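Friendly challenge for the regulars: who can give me the structure tokens for this chain first? No prize, just bragging rights.
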Amino acid sequence: MSKFRERAAALVAQMTLEEKVSQTIYNAAEIERLGIPEYNWWNEALHGVARAGTATVFPQTIGVAATFDEELVGEMADVIAEEARAKFNMQREKEDRDIYKGLTFWSPNVNIFRDPRWGRGQETYGEDPYLTSRLGVRFVQGLQKEEGGFMKAAACAKHFAVHSGPEGDRHTFNAVVSKQDLYETYLPAFKACVQEANVEAVMGAYNRTNGEPCCGSKTLLTDILKEEWGFKGHVLSDCWALVDFHENHKVTKNAVESAAMALENGCDLNCGCVFPNLRDAVRGGYVDEARLDEAVTNLLECRMKLGLFEEEGTVPFDSIDYSCVDSKEHKALNLEVSRKSLVLLKNDGLLPLDKNKIKSIGVIGPNADSRRALVGNYEGTASRYVTVLEGIEDYVGDDVRVFYSEGCHLYRDRSSGLTKDRDRFSEVKAVCEQSDVLVVVLGLDASIEGEQGDASNEFSSGDKLNLSFPGLQNEVLQIAYESGKPVILVSMTGSAMALDWEDSHLPAIIQAWYPGARGGQAVAELIFGAYSPEGKLPVTFYRTTEELPDFTDYAMKGRTYRYMEQEALYPFGFGKSYTTFEVGGIKADGQTIAKGGQISVDVTVKNTGSYAGGETVQVYVKALRENTPNAQLKGLKKVYLQPGEEKTVTVVLTDAAFGLYDEDGKFVLEAGEYAVYAGCQQPDARSAALTGKVCETIAVSCGETVNL
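First reply, four minutes later:
Bragging rights claimed.
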């Protein structure tokens, strides 16, 4: 037992039943006689400290995922934790213990973005369990960095588990999933955060999974999380999720039964109002008080790890000063993340623009000058924002005339009240006439794409009904195209859109996501060639909604690059550059794999173009037998090269990279043949067609079927 756990248990032993119960609510009460201050557990740090004033606002998580850069994610999380401590220190000094002021952050969201219609997919690291695991682990490690035996901040992996919409049904929905899909797709990132990163907390989901409400699921919280994985932290409910047990899921009769069910099956902390009923649940014999003692001990142990019970000034992080918040250094890292998050989807030679060869540029669209489109949801407040329009104006200065039109409202048919519809179209046409080249900035923002109740989406509770730009945006783009001027499309969304027409008709397309407070600067610099783009898609861009399975179907068949049968418009792992890279000379230190073994794969990467740039070496594994997933990402490594420079990159594949889960949820390394692919993309035909390159391949075999 750790020293903190001993102290926590000793403190719990002195509490009355009522005092214990008071500590299981997110706004935990003060217990003055025991020296326990009040504490609000609820805080957010998805891509920067959120909802508590000024902070560095990094790109939304889906954009961070597009960097494919583990080390960068770790650096970003460390900065978030630094600002979290700085703000906490300031707030504690001012005796401000309000919501969003603590050190327990309900981030990251490591759910799988299985369907592009899901509004909260923007909060995730994309559709792939491996990529999500690697980036999620680095985020947790960065946030929970230790010094002097204390954690800088506490992370929380959410929403456990099998949770990805529809938002409008989340309080009643039962996600039905096979054991194979559960273990193969929905659980790996959570397992990695628990076993590799020692994440301090896990948050349950609103929905039921296979009939059990996730925040009171014996299968998820007890059997898998605690017993199978050995989780030692605390479990919390999503906000007001326990009310759903009796009001919506109808698995209990009342709040007392709901409180008992959640506590008994492993939930320690209630974001909501149900756990006050634990007093009656214990007294009525619905749940053992010893389980309550364990829950409160878990919670106090976390606070002690953060140094919240130490004398002020004795914890190393107490000296972090408020001056670091959104500082010059943090702004610089933010810009770096923004640059690396942008994905160049198409470029027929138009980009980069040479500002010395154009006299005017038109910037058009509802997201061109939108701060809201920079930040996504669960955001903080930056000390300065740079929109795409501002970024372009700053970059070209007085050398190039910039014309601007909002073009249209994000989703309504007019921009101003009392006007007729399409009230900005004449202005769009005028801007097109005046400009040598057009940058059309379309997309969504968190007002219509996001969480139910948070997004004011009049269409689908935060989800998308389809993959088209809403409102009049496509008409604005059509006007720009028909002007005959070269058009660069900048898509600012938190999810994949259907860009089939755009791909067929436009010379350049940039997927900018919600690129953070400095995002407009990063976009402008990409357009004018200040750096070479390196982002890769963490999700598949489908051609239409019609090819997708039903939104409520949680089976993975037909979903994501791992199981889809049709050809993508833009595949997972795809992204263009201004330079060219050649990958070759693949070598392995062995061509057989067995339980406990590993294979080191070496490839040489050479920058054969004229730009310095970054590239992601991606390694995929495919089991060469029927009824197995498509080639799956199992290794990645970022490399930065000057023109003409060459490096050898090594990726190690353990036995787990070749294992697959069977129908019973058992992890099995099957005897047979496997293909290992290495390149700058997925080994699919569409990626080869888009890039003109094919992946390097080696064969690997396994002689004996074993359980892993």
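The mean pLDDT is 97. The longest strand covers residues 613-623. Your move, everyone else.
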